[in-house]
Amino acid sequence: MARIVSTLAFAALAAAAPLDARTSKHTSLIKQPDGPTEYQISLGPRPYYIVQNMTEGPLKQKLESCANGPFSVTGWSIGHRGGATLQIPEASAQNQEAGARMGSGVLECDVAFTNDLQLVCRHSLCDLHTTTDILLRPELAAKCTQPFRPANATSPASALCCTSDITLSEYNSLCSKMDGSNSSARTPEAYQRGTPAWRTDLYDTCATPLSLDGFIDLVDSFPGYRNFTPELKTPPSQVPMPFKGVYTQAQYARDMVNAFIRKGIAPERVWAQSFLPADVFLWISEFPAFGNHAVYLDEEGDTPETLVTAAARLPSLKAQGVNIIAPPINYLLTYGDATNSTIVPSPYATAAKAAGLDIIAWLFERSGPLTTVDARQDYYYSTFSQAVSHDGQLYEVLDIMANEIGIVGMFSDWSATTTYFANCFGLQGPYGENYN
Ligand SMILES: *[C@@H]1O[C@H](CO)[C@@H](O)[C@H](O)[C@H]1NC(C)=O
Ligand SMILES: *[C@@H]1O[C@H](CO)[C@@H](O)[C@H](O)[C@H]1NC(C)=O
Ligand SMILES: *[C@@H]1O[C@H](CO)[C@@H](O)[C@H](O)[C@H]1NC(C)=O
Ligand SMILES: *[C@@H]1O[C@H](CO)[C@@H](O)[C@H](O)[C@H]1NC(C)=O
Hints:
The radius of gyration is 21 Å and the shape is globular. The chain starts with 6 loop residues before the first helix and ends in an 11-residue tail after the last helix. An 8-stranded parallel barrel has the order 1-2-6-7-8-9-12-13, surrounded by 6 helices. A two-stranded antiparallel ribbon has the order 4-5. Strands 10-11 form a two-stranded antiparallel sheet. β8 (295-297), α13 (304-319) and β9 form a beta-alpha-beta unit. The chain has one domain: TIM Barrel (Alpha-Beta Barrel). It contains 18 helices and 13 strands. By secondary structure, the chain is α/β, with parallel strands linked by helices. The protein has helices spanning 7-16, 46-52, 58-64, 93-101, 128-131, 138-141, 168-172, 188-191, 212-221, 249-262, 277-286, 288-291, 304-319, 329-332, 347-354, 373-376, 393-405, 415-425, and strands spanning 74-79, 104-113, 119-121, 146-149, 158-160, 227-232, 273-274, 295-297, 324-326, 333-335, 343-345, 358-364, 409-412. Bound molecules: 2-acetamido-2-deoxy-beta-D-glucopyranose (4 copies).
């Protein structure tokens, strides 16, 4: 589905993209704005801050050469929970708007279900007590699986509020807020706080929650060609499946895909994800046009021992029809020498490529300043944290994943950072037609 672009705009795009965009059938390829009144991609200061902090060398020179764009939407830049989660309440309409503006070509909705079995965008079925103001709504707070308990001398403050505790219309009445809580809180009001200092409460002003249907309509309305990546959640033990004795994980998996079918969204634009192999296998067998590029999220390798097992399992996933694997960054990178000063692709990354799997990685821009990831034992840097010490290395890390491993997409909490890099290297992301 080629997009029509003006000659002038095309020349600019071709200059930014060494890939032959003209012959590409990539559906994420976005036409440049035709004039100053058209929607423009806007990246803000952060990519420039990162480039400035890089040590001198060819990578810095290359990234500096792209400073003036042009920047267009790219499917390589995947908006995690909307793509602006670093600063804007996750999964909200405002977050999706910002991720889209920062050039994300694929936007994410984690799919949870409500008490009346409607699908909504929420990272966990049971995180409403930290991602919304539900505890400040007495009539809704009373419906929580575990209502608020204040901190006392022996126990921290706690609560557990699930999307399955309330109806869709109740869910829609909530404010989305920055994810966080205060375990010392003695009141629901005090419990609302807890945003890490390197995020911000600046936009924590009652963001709009989204249903899955609302997400699809919103993303489809953004200028430029955008794809969707819905993630089916695995309900926690407090929400045993089948829910109410009847609603099975399999039906939930079907309902998620059917929401896109009902809206007439082409399967090639939908990157269905799950941590549960059974969900992915269901899509492969029942919805092959979606299943052939469904994304299996791998979290089976969190220790050095299990990472070896997880890598060994990859060929069998491929043999069962999985084409895309999505591990966290720390599975893909490791130390390159005994002094822990260099970073190289891990044996897991090599095994995934050897198995013929495409790789989408998560999660960029989640971890705050790189100066402190080693001291904080940040998860995403855990396998190479001693080799990173300053923010300029964000692009060194991305370069190894993009240009040495060849990942086909990167989830990010701040889409501008990934969009800048992808535009500079002509990375357009995967396209669904290629998996047919
Ligand atoms: C990058 O930032 C660190 C502080 O985080 C600083 O020590 C270092 O000099 C900076 N490097 C460059 C090239 O600006
Ligand atoms: C402290 O809180 C815990 C958990 O909410 C509760 O079980 C316990 O009874 C409380 N202790 C006192 C002294 O109130
Ligand atoms: C957390 O709550 C405690 C008790 O109300 C309070 O002393 C503390 O300042 C709060 N921390 C934040 C970050 O709001
Ligand atoms: C390198 O990192 C590994 C794993 O974190 C650690 O066990 C080892 O002591 C480090 N080596 C040096 C020389 O710092």
